[in-house]
Amino acid sequence: MNTPALDCLIVGAGPAGLTAAIYLSRFHLRVALVDAGHSRAALIPRTHNHAGYPGGIEGKALLGLMRDQAAEFGVAVETALVERLARADALFVATAGERDLKARTVLLATGVVNNQPPMAPEVHDEALQRGLLRYCPICDGYEASDKRIGVIGTGEHGHNEALFLRGFSRNVTLIAPEGEHGIEESHRRALEGAGVKLVNGPCHPLRITGETIVVPTPDGELAFDTVYPALGSLIRSDLALDLGAKANAEGCIEIDAHQRTSVEGLYAAGDVTRGLDQISHAMGQAGVAATTIRNDLARLKPILR
Predict the structure, then answer these.
(1) Hey, which bits of 97-142 come out as E strands?
(2) Contact at 8 Å (CB) between 193 and 166?
(3) What residues contact residue 60 under an 8 Å CB cut-off, 6+ apart?
(4) How far apart are CA 59 and CA 51, in angstroms?
(5) 149-152/212-217 β-pairing
(6) Are 209 and 124 in contact (CB under 8 A)?
(7) DSSP state of 262
(8) Alpha carbon distance 21, 15 (integer Å)
(9) Cα–Cα distance, 190 to 12 (Å, whole number)
């Protein structure tokens, strides 16, 4: 017997994907949620700026609560990697291992991967858990207030991140990752005017020493209370690009005001789209996407109970 096509396949079980699953299942739609197990939210030691959690909440704990809530409405997370997404007549076909999933619509909530500084994986993970290494100054710049902050980066991205963090501490150092800084003169003047120290690279592998994180440079070893890599990210937008969806130069999927991509029936939410990489923003986009999916499907065929 043929299994009916899903109303929506959600790829990615981070805050965006889980929020969409809750919405769509409560619209009485047939939903599947597939996740490869690499949500950036799971790496957050404790978020303090996600509203509703005085004292903060660990990323894994937040995702666990959201999974439990989705399960209340019949959605379980299937652990698998969607390797391919194709069109077959009016449906999408997603290949995950040896299984094919057919769906009328697809929501991509696949997120991004941070580019890491040079350091051993086990050192990286320990530094992240201890707050010696941080990736999101919007999320946790407050926790670095008045501390010695190192920023690994250069160019416009490094300039922007260092100046942003200067709003939290007077002691900010911008270190080029590979050699001399590639910063235009106006940006250099702005950094120097704000008191940001500039140090050329390359950065040798970072290490933990006591309560500090050490960055070896040609000018000597520098010790910081926390380091922020400003090295960009890898956008997980391949599935959309393979379908011909439009994206910007960085690979972020282009969407309209209702989270529709340029491919009919394909939607995107969260960090894989261009915008503020924040849990609250991803969840808001997911709510919009799920409601749009429901209404777009209803235009094709009324959804009646």
Answers:
(1) 99-108, 112-114
(2) no
(3) 42
(4) 13
(5) unpaired
(6) no
(7) S
(8) 10
(9) 40
Task: Give the tokens for residue 229.
Answer: 């890599």
Single out the residue of 120, 87, 116 nearest to residue 228, CA to CA: 116
The DSSP code for 49 is S
Output the CA–CA distances (angstroms, integers) from residue 4 to 1, 8, 32, in the order listed: 9, 12, 12
pTM: 0.95
**Joined tokens for residue 35:** 């996740």
300 DSSP assignment? H
Residue-wise pLDDT tens for the chain (305 aa)?
467 899 999 999 999 999 999 999 999 999 999 999 989 999 999 999 999 999 999 999 999 999 999 999 999 999 999 999 999 989 999 999 889 999 999 999 999 999 999 999 999 999 999 999 999 999 999 999 999 999 999 999 999 999 999 999 999 999 999 999 999 999 999 999 999 999 999 999 999 999 999 999 999 999 999 999 999 999 999 999 999 999 999 999 999 999 999 999 999 999 999 999 999 999 999 999 999 999 999 999 999 99
Q: Can you say whether residue 40 is alpha, beta or left, with left for phi > 0 and alpha for psi between -120 and 50 degrees?
A: alpha
Distance between CA atoms of residues 72 and 12, nearest Å: 19
Contacts from 211-215 at CB under 8 Å and sequence distance 24+?
Answer: 212/132, 212/148, 213/127, 213/132, 213/133, 213/150, 215/150, 215/152, 215/175
Select from 160, 126, 154, 274 the least CA-distant residue to 217: 154
Question: If DSSP codes are grouped into helix, strand and coil, which group holds residue 121?
Answer: helix
Q: CA end-to-end span of the chain, whole Å?
A: 24
Among candidate residues 84, 74, 105, the one with its CA nearest the CA of residue 258: 105
Going by C-alpha positions, the residue among 59, 23, 71 that lies closest to residue 139 is: 59
What is the spatial distance between Cα 158 and Cα 187, in angstroms, rounded to a whole number? 10
Identify residue 271 by its one-letter amino acid code: D
Give the list of residues 6+ apart from residue 299 with CB closer than 8 angstroms, or none.
none
Within 13 Å, how many C-alpha atoms sit on residue 223's CB side?
5
